[in-house]
Amino acid sequence: MKHRLVIAAAAAGFLVLAGCAQPDAPAPDDTTVPPVPPTAVSPTEEPADPADEDESLEGEPSLFGPEAGADMTIVGVEYPGTIALLETPGETASVISDLDPLTAILTATGNNWSLPDSTWYELDSGESTGWVNARNLTQLGQTDDATSAIVEAEGRFSADSIEELGLQVAEFYASDEPPSRVVKSGPAERGDLHEVTYDVVGLGDDSVMGYRLHVFGLPAEDAAETETTEGAVTLRTVERTVMCARGVTGEGLCV
């Protein structure tokens, strides 16, 4: 009799359990597979560092060069030539755009790069950012009248053309050691006053890089008031603007 009661109680318990809701168990006719929570997987590669793009670039950051925000001027480019704004430092880099030395408005970013045989400055042209060789860049300083110094030293130059006259003035300022570059950097204009611009670049001074010389000449028939020599054009005035190699003070003096 006791055995029958135990079996009956066990059977009743089974029926109670079978009738209870089981929240974690799927219904018998449910074929949906429960979603599996995503597992965090560590990436196999880290994001690329932009600095790594320069790993193949020769050279290193330069300790010298213009500060961010400095106004830069292109010099030493033969008129009417242009100069390339490049993607990276180096003569073989891809060209972003060609800059007109007479109209380009350039601002230094403060990034400067040194290669074994050259130094490069990164510039913002207003439309794009790229690199230009430092040998063609300067910060312009003060402008003064250099006519008296030339006349006192050499007399009043005269030449057959304003281009030749400008070259004489440029050679007066050029250095032999190191040999500086003399370049006609602006157009020759003829009128009541003839005028032309020459750049003398590379004087070997760590402060004064060179001079931009705006030369004015009088046609021979208008030169009666000056001390003249034979020639079609006689020197009238020389405006000399200093090119600063290391920066400019608030007064326009080279650092």
User: Outline, from the CA principal axes?
Assistant: elongated
Q: Strand-and-helix sequence, N→C?
A: HEEEEEEEEHEHEEEE
Q: How many distinct helices?
A: 3
Mean pLDDT: 83
The assembly state of the depicted protein chains is single chain
Query: Considering DSSP H and I runs of 4 or more, what fraction of the residues is helical?
Result: 10-25%
Rg of Cα set = 39 Å
Largest sheet: 11 strands, antiparallel
What number of structural domains do the residues give? 2
The proportion of residues in beta strands is 25-35%
User: Which structural class do you get from the secondary structure elements?
Assistant: alpha+beta
- Unreliable sequence segments: 1-23, 36-52
Number of strands: 13
How far apart the termini lie comes to: 117 Å
Kindly describe this structure.
It is a single chain. With 255 residues, the protein is of the alpha+beta class. The protein folds into two domains: 60-138, SH3 type barrels, CATH 2.30.30; 141-244. It is 15% helix and 33% strand. The chain has helices spanning 2-19, 147-154, 162-173; strands at 60-61, 71-74, 83-86, 95-99, 106-115, 118-124, 129-133, 137-145, 158-159, 181-184, 194-201, 208-219, 233-244. The strands form two sheets. Strands 1, 2, 5, 6, 7, 8, 9, 10, 11, 12 and 13 form an eleven-stranded antiparallel sheet that branches. It has a two-stranded antiparallel sheet with strand order 3-4. The longest helix has 18 residues, at 2-19. The chain is elongated, with a radius of gyration of 39 Å. The chain starts with a helix and ends in an 11-residue tail after the last strand.
